[in-house]
Specification:
Helices cover about 40% and strands about 15% of the residues. The chain is an alpha/beta fold. It has 3 domains: about 110 residues, 3-Layer(aba) Sandwich (Cobalt-precorrin-4 Transmethylase, domain 1); about 100 residues, Tetrapyrrole methylase, C-terminal domain (Methyltransferase, Cobalt-precorrin-4 Transmethylase, Domain 2); about 45 residues. Helix 3 packs parallel to helix 4 and helix 10 crosses helix 11.
Length: about 270
């Protein structure tokens, strides 16, 4: 069976010097580059003397362009996918194309490279390795509140646009006023800045210093408390229609807590 060549190539998130030699060689060797905005990608290509032809591939033409790219690749030509900045498929188009290529047994080669979330997190000390990556934050306040409440006990990493970051931070402040947060802007550029502090401090900072360019953010996890844990377990068991006595037995056995104490908590929350 003939193997076709398709490459996923990360591009710098700010500093052009962060592109890899392998990425440059790959973009020079392929017959076609699929990119979000040809004007943005062309600046990168011109800087490194890359003459490869580009074709637009963004969220508004992804399905149409996928069919075209499949035809080109299966004709024996090599192609690469890039986004405006960073690694494709991380909050950027490419999932539809990757799925279609896999279904046709097309070999995909992904190159390592720049990623805003990884660059941001590598500068911030965290107590735990695990985190939840939310991509861009939801559009509505209710959805944002649900997200930051759901991941109250997990570090929550997100992207946000400069015109929405203040609204997002104010929602976090209203919902979790005692939380700690961090934001990173202009990552890898001359004016790169990482700010870490209480949510009120971070919100005030953004009010006084309106950011330019996309923001990478982190809402730090809150420590688990015994009360929070028991309340969550009680709510979960009640949703499954367990009765108060049954809940008190289950939680008592699992967490070595007095049955009477759990039973009282169940009754008080009814």
């Amino acid at each position: 069976m003939k193997e076709y060549d398709f490459y996923i190539v990360p591009t710098p998130i700010g500093n052009l010097g962060d592109i890899t030699v392998r990425a440059i060689d790959t973009l020079k060797s392929v017959d076609l580059i699929a990119c979000e905005d040809s004007r943005v990608t062309q600046k990168l290509l011109n800087h490194f003397g890359i003459k490869t032809k580009c074709i637009s591939y963004h969220k508004f033409n992804e399905k149409e362009r996928t069919a075209k790219l499949l035809e080109i690749i299966q004709s024996g030509k090599k192609a690469a996918l890039v986004s405006d900045a960073g690694t494709p498929l991380f909050c950027d188009p490419g999932s539809i194309l990757a799925e279609e290529l896999r279904s046709r047994s097309v070999k995909i080669t992904a190159l390592p490279g720049a990623n805003a979330a990884a660059t941001f997190l590598s500068q911030i000390a965290r107590k735990n390795e695990d985190f939840y990556f939310a991509g861009f934050m939801p559009r509505t306040k209710d959805q944002t509140e649900n997200l930051i409440t759901k991941f109250k006990h997990t570090d929550l990493v997100f992207y946000e646009s400069p015109n929405r970051i203040l609204k997002t931070l104010k929602t976090v402040k209203d919902c979790r006023p005692n939380s700690r947060a961090a934001i990173g802007r202009e990552l890898t550029k001359f004016f790169e800045e990482i700010k870490i502090g209480g949510i009120s401090e971070i919100t005030g900072f953004c009010e006084e210093n309106p950011p330019k360019g996309e923001i990478t953010g982190l809402i730090f996890r809150e420590a688990d408390s015994g009360c929070d844990l028991i309340e969550e377990k009680i709510a979960a068991l009640k949703s499954k229609n367990f009765k108060a006595k049954e809940i008190s037995v289950i939680i008592s056995e699992l967490y070595n807590i007095s049955r009477n104490e759990v039973y009282k908590a169940v009754i008080e929350n009814e």
